[in-house]
Batch of 2 targets.
Target 1
Amino acid sequence: MMKMLNSRSGRGAAVAALVVAVGASVVAQKMTINGAGATFPAVIYSKWFSEYNKLHPEVQINYNPQGSGFGIQQIQKQTVFFGASDGPMTNDALLASPGRILHFPTVLGGVVPIYNIPGVNAMLKFTGPVLADIFLGKITKWNDPKIAANNAGVNLPNLDITVAHRSDGSGTTYIWADYLHKVSPEWTQKVGVANSVTWPVGLGAPQSAGVAGLVKQTPGAIGYVELIYATQNQISYGSVQNLAGEFVTASVESVTASAAAAVTKMPADFRVSIVNAEGKGVYPISSFTWLLVYESPKDKAAAKVFVDFMKWMLGDGQKLAPQLGYAPLPAPVVKLELDAVAKIKIQ
Amino acid sequence: MTFHQFRRRSMSKLLTVFSAGSVLLALIPLVMILFFVVAKGAGSLNLDFFTKLPAPVGETGGGMGNAILGSLIMCGLGALFAIPVGVMSGIYIVESGSRLAPIVRFAADALNGVPSIVIGLFVYVIAVVPFKQFSGLAGGLALGIMMIPLITRTTEELLRLVPGSLREGALALGATRSRAVFTVVLPAALPGIVTGIVLALARIAGETAPLLFTALGSSYWSTDLREQMSSMTVQIYKYAGSPYEDWHRQAWAGAFVLVALVLVCSILARLATARLSRMRVAD
Amino acid sequence: MARVRLSISDFIFRMGTGAFALVLVLLVSGIGFVLWNESHLAIQKFGFAFWRTSDWNPVQGQFGAFPFIWGTLYSSVLALMIAGPIALGIAIFLSELCPDWLRQPLVFLTELLAAIPSIVYGLWGVFVLVPAVRSLQTALPDSVRAWALFSGPPVGFSLLAAALVLAVMVVPYSSAVAREVLKSVPRSQREAAYALGSTRWEATRAALHYGRAGIMGAIMLGFGRAIGETMAVTMVIGNTPKAVASIFAPQHTMAAVIANQFVDANDQLHSDALVEIGLVLFIITLLVNIASRVLIWNMTRQRSRASRPAAAAAPEAA
């Protein structure tokens, strides 16, 4: 070897190799992939992107959790590479997009009713109609008989209920409104289901973090957020009555149970609602959450990297879900999705 | 003393009490804010805060390193754009003798009063939408637009303060107008102008609204102006509205940094102008 | 005025600096033009009814912007009612009653108040003012809380909280300008009053009367600042588009709704509606600013040559 380096051509070859190596490291620069959307899965997404960055330091996936509405808007405007939403895009929205957008479910989660009642630490039981009436503004005090009926033994104070809801376009709102519409015909008639609805009462706050913050700071407030925001911040949340009549607490098991029926008849585009599902042990306000990606993205290099991320997400990534309170995707869904991911055009 | 006189005197004393009371009343929020910022923020200032990236949502630790860097970059970019425009516009208003000068002055006043959110809207339309990209460039542009009227005003004020004798002396010696301005008048006014620029920078560093939909935010170290960029003010805004105690602490720490910056710049400006007025009195 | 012939060099000088000045002018007109352009969908569809109707419902394509005008004016006027007398009091103290050694430090402190970023005011508002308003509300007797002005549950995020934050932010601006105005009142005015045997209050009143246009201008400047303020307001006002009389109710303002809703405007009509709000905000602040400057400029044209740049920069920065 020394003999080789001593000769002229040997030195030349060594220099060439060095140049190639340096050049290759320069070429393998940072790639930034921008995404935006739902706050519902923001906790697990930020964990995933951080972990993936540790495995692949040259890939920075930058996620802006500013609500599903924002995510859908930005992916349509193509200012981001991927969007994220827990309210699936409507057919109209899909038709209005400049290209074909595909939905890819990532995890399952549950939306819980959070509340701040000074002196009450117990987990309150809510039925669907009671929640609908609270958010319609028909029940205005915490010691209302309708709430007390399900919560014998809890000393509910004579405190005004302050409803907190999302002020931005939100998939969490979609899931919540979807549930209320399924349990209250009045809600269907007066409010409806969408990422953004006209709230009869209450204060608006942006993003799940905003609603959680508002509830935490306001005595007498009630709001709705994904489970993790309640547990991470020690905010009281209630159990909800499912179709079978049981009062179920949101958990990985109860959320997974709600997807059991849907798994067998998953549509090809993965847009399905599992809210208020039938069955025992089901948490009724559960949902999938989706990544929105163009079938034929303009930035092929980013597409290649992102597809690689999605495969990781469907494999090792899923293992990180339970510790953050999200339910991993059922195996049959993962299989279907891996096939679908392969359809993204990376050439 | 008649009743009438008594009433007049007491009204006068009341005025003294009222006006002194107003000063105290106005100082209360200032003291409170400084107190809160120091009490809640100073404790959270550590090396991590300045050097680390934000931790994943819900995890404690991490810092605002990228936000601080982003703010520095965008303020610098804004200054780069605003200083030439601002200073030259100020010179135009005072020295060019053009009949259009009052129009420029009016424009500077108008721009000064534009709410920062409206400037954010404007930059969104011209710099974000056409490129389909939120960027640090757009953020810096928005900040720069806000700085221009401040710098124009300062330049104008200071140029007016330069004694006419200086100007006329230069012209009398045969200098052209531009030579007179750039080699005599401007250098005389320069210390004050620099002070004004520093103050404008300190003010702009605290702006949030123009960055909300131009630079957006990033969880990584971002120095690429064509990419989204994090900033201290937007980060504080996000943290304040969240339920996470750790984020609240960091928001206060960020506020501490901003207030400290403003305090330092104000003190420097005071010292500089005190020096200036002493110099002027001397000549 | 006789036309002056310019030398080549002067011409280049004028053109050169003029080019930069042109950028400034283009920016202002550009903002107006862009706002006008981007809002015409909403202007065409709703016309003036946009400002009279109260139903702001982006989901159903209904855009009535009255609650925002209501909230903006209500919070700003309330803020000025609180801030105006205080600002004037400070101006009077600093220009007349203050011992010399105390003046500089106090002026410095009021400038500091002006320089604190609005996000810091917002932080303070969220964590200090909002709970304080909530406590205030619960402390009021029920009979008072039955009045429309004070009704509603104790949420804390309210018009009152916004008005208080705005008042604190406006005080330094208005007081600095008012001080300048009072300084430029000729000494002869005050001395004449003293010569006639006035008390301090009566002499001050005479000075205030002389400078009333400028004082008016100072108040208007504060008003312009208040209507445009975004961050501090949106963090404490509750962001609810309902025009109600209660100061304890969460409401909304023009600047806050743009900050809140623009990034996820559902459709072109929604974003055009928000831009239209921005356009009107632009026009209103422009008019208020011009009016106040005219009033002040007339008064302080004879201002002493010793005015410092720091003092000049701070109050003019809006």
Target 2
Amino acid sequence: MAVQQTKTAGISQKFLANVTQEKGVWKVNAENMPYKELNALLRELDSLGAEQVALSNVYGQRYLGTDLKTKLKIDIYGTPGNDLASFMDGPSIEVHGNAQDCTGNTMNSGQVVIHGRAGDITGYAMRGGKVFIRDDVGYRVGIHMKEYMDNKPIMVVGGTAEDFLGEYMAGGILAVLGLTLKKGEQHRARYVGTGMHAGIIYVRGEIGNLGKEVKKVDVDEKDLVVIKGLVKEYCGYFGKDFDSVMKGKFFKIVPYSHRPYGRVYAY
Amino acid sequence: MKSYLPPEYIVERDEDKCIRCKVCVNQCTYETHSYDAEDDVIRSKDENCVNCQRCVTFCPTHAITIRENPTAYRENANMTSDVIKDIKKQAETGGIILTGMGCDRPLLTYWDRLLVNASQVTNPSIDPLREPMEIRTYLGMKPDALEMEYTNGDIELKTQLTPQLTLEVPIMFSAMSYGAISLNVHESLARAATKAGTYFNTGEGGLDPSLYKYGEHTIVQVASGRFGVHSKYLHAGAAVEIKIGQGAKPGIGGHLPGEKVTAEISRTRMIPLGTDALSPAPQHDIYSIEDLRQLIYALKEATNYEKPISVKIAAVHNAAAIASGIVRAGADIVAIDGVRGSTGAAPKIIRDNVGIPIELALASVDQRLRDEGIRNRASIVAAGGFRSSGDVLKAIALGADAVYIATAALVAIGCTVCQKCYTGKCPWGIATPDPWIGKRVNPDIASERLTNLLRGWSHEIKEMMGGMGVNSIESLRGNRLHLRGVGLTDTELRILGVKMAGD
């Protein structure tokens, strides 16, 4: 009992039943913990200088990974709720399961790796860090991702995406690998890149319905260097075969202009 | 294409008074004036003049007069000069007509139809010069009940209070983004808010790190474009405001054109230099009250429940029902911006035609929240065209906890409401992203002018309260018996919740 106490010193009394520490990993049983408590516990662990946390029995708790000050590594077993890693700045999250909507909302830095699929609005207004999703994503993914100098958001989707992919995109890289598509199947997403005015969307496989502000062009050598780097990282996380992914045909979607609506107004 | 548009103004210069000092030449950012060295004379291009009065104000000999161009089209109550000019402008460009500031149509300003009560004989008036007057205001959620414990004569509050904003004067500076206005104006507002014990709102363009030190008096805004929004920014402010809508342009997004995205502005907004800064019309993660709740709590989590969260909407037809949803979604403050609210740039057609007056929206929102028994769960901030302390006092009597001012604040530091903010060339150094023009606003002087305005208005509010026999603004808040209407229909009186004067 005494050993147990020293190992969890600094943790609030009310959380002690949920927390154990083994070999430097803080294990949290999140069952029956409302998100407010779970996030408060993560803040405590963060401020205690924890380096690795494993959350088990996560059943839809929202906002995990927000307001943490360090580069905490968080493993999530179960299904995290909406707004995973929203406004996140630094931590690294691995989800062993699916994520829900709005993952990486206005995320600043850090990393999210999802061993499954992610829902709608993944990466909304992301301005830095990386998000890797093994399978498909929902609607409105990568909307208003933006970059400034070294802050450059990167999102790699292993599967396919739904409509409004990369809408209003203002920077960063969004890659969609199409690995869940059947042979001969196209990406279904419509209105891709509507209002996009900076950044790049790389797509592996055919995609038809683009917004009127963007064009589809072939990738060049420089693009292939970037794509290879991303695919390699993706394959590393999810145990996929690099060569077979690279066999597919890649192209990129870029905006015609940095000023898509420059001529709409009368001065 | 030859433009058929006549110059809007005519510049007249009294040659006897002009000393050729060239102040007008240097002050005009629209290049209206130029010096002809050969003839030693200053010439003016009327078509460039926007009647901002900068040259008039700074001419040392008062030699310049700006007049409206009298060569007007034939008088017509329907096809007015403005209408004809707008049609011609669109025929020449095919564009949406942009404008700045608030609606200039004579839409009913209900403040002018509301009159305030005063004490006579009974309930004697109070002299604010001799007696204490309490106008401090707390914004944020108030608990349904307070639990207290009495021990040895000491009272201890058991109820856990949620974070509040403390206002020494119930007037805050409304959201104006860095980009729409200059950094010096942001600094002036921040310093004035700090000095006066109130708050300034960053608007949706982020906050320059040099102003983080005024964070205790800053409300940081989060809008659909999420410009400059990151963890440090959220933590820098005293409160976070989610911008859903704005009175000048309800239902549409914002658009800072690429030429205004200078190096400094791209850094603060964290977007590439020279790109359009597009704020989409909706926030793409909010399609319902449930989604709004999700973002409210995302921001509460992101700031560890240390800051009140405000939600700002434009005053529209269903404002009362929407406000009820906002309060139930967990907002601590609901800000409502009326049809006369200003902007740095908006389509004129939207500014002048969309939304409803703040007076009606405020009255209906306050009433709805009272009827539903949730008025204590959020504070109401009213915005949109407040011109004087009289308007502020009436708004508080109608149910506002505090008001936001923006146009009045800009007028205090030089703005003449010429409505050309969207050009980014404001000769007063206010509505410009250009740091060189922005230097015309000296934050030492401008912040003093702003604190003077707030001091003047608070004295006036206290004077009026004293006359009403009220010594605490809490006794005035939502107390519509202190108001009477004149020249209003029964329906208007019913919505405003006030009696007819004489009744």
